[in-house]
Amino acid sequence: MPQTADDLDAVAVRAWCALALEALGRERAAIDAINVYPVADGDTGTNLYLTVESANQALEAVFAAHETGATTPLTADAVRAMAHGALIGARGNSGTILAQLLRGTAQVLAVGHDADHLRRALATAADAARQAVAHPVEGTVLTVAAEAAAAAVRTAADATTAEVAQAAYEGARTALAATPGQLAVLGRAGVVDAGGRGLVTVLGALVEAVCGRAPATGPALPAPALPVPDDCAAAGSAGGPAFEVIYLLEATDEAVDRLRARLDPLGDSLVVVGGDGLWNVHVHVDDAGAAVEAGVEAGRPYRIRITHFGADRAHPHVEPVQRAVVVVVPGDGLRGLCKEAGATTVLARPGEPPASGELVDAIRRAHAREVVLLPNDAELRHTAAAAADQARAEGVRVALVPTRAAVQGLAALAVHEPGRSFDEDVVAMTAAAGATRYAELAVAERQSWTMAGICQAGDVLGLIDGDVAVIGEDVPHTARTVLDRMLAAGGELVTLVLGEDVPDSLADELEEHVREGHLAVDTVVYRGGHQSAPLLIGVE
Question: In which region does residue 123 sit, left (phi positive, over 0), alpha (psi from -120 to 50) or beta (all else)?
Fold first, then answer.
């Protein structure tokens, strides 16, 4: 795909992304095979491919939008779409870092796309990626990116875009070949850094996009003559955190700064990328629930993915034991439902949240050596934590899943499977809860300022994820508005929990409303009994 050698326009950006996806598809298995750091889980090539696939889909959507008008997108639109797609689709440690590299590149190329802007774009990208990693390590993709940028900056002032791209590619190849001497685990395995290898592939695609031909020499790829030794895998993973947690997060810069400080001591491989209110968070931890809860405190996490690296990493000799779920419920209706599912329940009466002693008693009543605790209320976070600590002191293994609403607890309980390992069960329940947005309706008791404006006594308030988002005059209209806002962000299942005095006709009306606007979304309805809110809503 020949391009002018002095301009990286939108068409060239499109070619670059498509060629990178194609190249990573070819080399995915080879890159997976040399993945020994930071975790020897053999998925770096796959994660990079999926990240670029998401970038390519976003970029193609921009071009498709311009086809009807027979126009070409601006370069700024193209690079921003590519970066945004990578951000929302980033997978793994390597994919998250690549997303930040593309974001840094886009920030400069959106302003200009000649050779000089490409130099600055590569330098900005390398700096941004390094800043996103809590504890940068040399001999990784960060080193390769830095050397690629340095080689680009050293090109002559009158160099073409193609010459700058070629220099960056050659600099990356040279840096990649040196990684085994910089990171001991790579040297013992006889391989180069897998993430850096992927970046060389992406830069090779850039050269092909602007030159119209693939680089003259292929990147070095030392491969071990024998399978990667066990001690190499151990150096990158054994004794390390048991889970990889990734989620998108809507939050302010200040909240993300606090989030970094909160997540850093929980584990390792912390990478937080993005900006302008949208972030991608990646971390390896033992307590997946705490990592998700930190995101909830910082903003709105979604698309939560939790991967267990293998039960033998954290608890190699744990035998299967009896397990129970203790759940706090807001009304008699849900209490019965949760009991039918096998859970031990604690009733939270309106205005009377349970004390830590009640939660400890419920854990004791469960007569289990392993307990999953679902508080179902953000205000009970510290109470539940205190109860969990007390139960642990008594010899019970307790996992606190930070559910903030009853509908999140229902989602977690629905995927509970006592037949699998404790860690795997907690991961599945945490992921299900985190993927559920929650809302409730309440009646204002007095005039007050809210996030949605001033409400009057008697107004019906629609709270989404804990904040007042809708002020209405009646329950049906407010409920429909809340559902529309929640489903605008997508969803597959709506859960409605009706209060004691709410007629069944409201559930019928809301089910019909969902069907009319969202054909692929299912609705389930439960009776909550005597609860403080007339209606609870969950969207998964």
Answer: alpha
